[in-house]
Fold each of these.
Amino acid sequence: MGTAVAAPVRLSVRRGDESLVEDLEWPSVPLGLLREARPWRTFRWYKGQQHYSGTYWSATMGDHVIYESRLELGRLLFADFAPEVRHIIAQPFLLKADVDGKVRKHIPDYLLLTDEGPVVVDGQGAPPA
């Protein structure tokens, strides 16, 4: 098995006006841009689906926040009740990195803006983007 060589991580953000800001390197992303990020994916409900997606009324946000599974809902509840969390963004951005000549993509579950700085919250089992 070879050693994976990764290039810098880039991310793309969907703004509130639906415009995209693409391929920013993580250290250079303005916090204000992250604050205004909108969920990267949209999801649909259908009879017989294998997961339980929905919306949760967040006291922190004073608005609904989406989730795609009961595990994400649990994480969202913890974040909403954590006093250090000031802002919650669902599916905040698309991460991209070149690994061994292939572009790998992933969308994290949540970005929490806290008193200590931004925190990425992500689970396992999410399909690749």
Amino acid sequence: MYHDKYQLISHYERSIVFVESLANITEEQWRMPIEPGKWTVAEVIGHLTPWDKFVVKQRLPFLFTEESLLKGPDVEEMNANAARNSCAQSKEETITNFINQRHQLIDALYQIVDKQWQQPFTIGASELTLYGYFASLVDHDVHHFSQIQNIGAIKWISSI
């Protein structure tokens, strides 16, 4: 298997373990802002799920086809909706939704053939590779997981 593909999948598998471990934090920690004026742990985890779903349903199926990529959602609107939903859900529901969607993402990544990982594609005016695209998504995860770790909730083990 292509080495970079393995690194990315490994990160996503560890992210599931990390989020599963959040079931052990208190409800107060779960609903606590990661910094003053910032999202809660619930909102941080909750906003990752719709982005994973977007990647699986609206990006991966179209990257190496002749079909045009659909315009991405409005980032602010999608994040606000996800944050609002995660505030209304139980901790268990948010964690379960994250895990289920992240498993779908992992399954989709396993289906990508090795030669496609360095094959360029275009989103808007940007030319990317799959590895570059997913490396930026991994960086986004790591940023948020580090924020959660900084409130003392749980330890994140960096991946890539």
Amino acid sequence: MVFTNMELLLRLLIAASLGGIIGYERELKGRDAGIRTHTLVSLGAAIITLTQLEASQWVIEFARDNTDLAPIVTTDITRLTAQIVNGIGFLGAGTIIVSKRSVTGLTTAASIWAVASLGISAGMGYYFMAISSTLIMLLVLRTVKSVFKIERTKQLEIRYVNREQTLSYLETCFKEHHISVVSTDHSITYHDDGTSVCRDLYTLHLPINFNMMKFIAILGENKNIFEINTIKTTLDN
């Protein structure tokens, strides 16, 4: 199949547009990989795919014109597209950030990988697949978390004095607010003047519609607690 210039342009525009739609959703979430990144990834995948198709067509025509060389002339239309799938993983990895036992950017990394597949399908001319896949991706990114109420996980760092008394207070607060303690990391810092400061890092399962700011305010009412820090541990961003 020989592509006309208009067909090539159409496929490139569709790939860029579909990638831009997904990038716009990511930008609404405040992610660094937004419209431009997703557009370029999808467009680049389409360019490579179309280049592979054009090159394969040239090889086929060359073999037809040179029948004596046909047995040694080969072509594989999946070679370059396979490299797209492998190579895009490095770009996706750049959006993942690990800090303070939390991981962010996994969803954006997955969207970049999926957008590359949109570019491939648009470059191949599978318009229905590309467009319908874009709509499904938007559905997943925008609605899944609101439909499926997945229990949230948070890490809470608390610094305090008077260990026994404060631990009893924390245990009571957790029970009253239906919070499950998954794990606890305890540490104590001893000062030269004989005083000590406790630091506990709690991994907590929170109930649906839990108001963390209100809960922190309640904990802060205890005179023994002087510092509270929250650490987001959700992987879906």
Amino acid sequence: MKNKVTLFLFSLLTFIDTNAQCAMCRAVLENEEGQGVAKGINDGIIYLMAIPYILVFGVGFAIYWKYFRVKK
């Protein structure tokens, strides 16, 4: 169990610092001078990618909490 928690935390830490551009976006944005727009696009993609995972985790946790927890 400890290995799973460690792997989960490690995957969260590496997920935060990823670049998630498609090839076309990367080609267009690499030609820019300041790279400010490219960083904004990366942050937006990461944000949009994370929301579904958070929602699925929340629904899964709610189902687990309602049906599978041990009642005292």
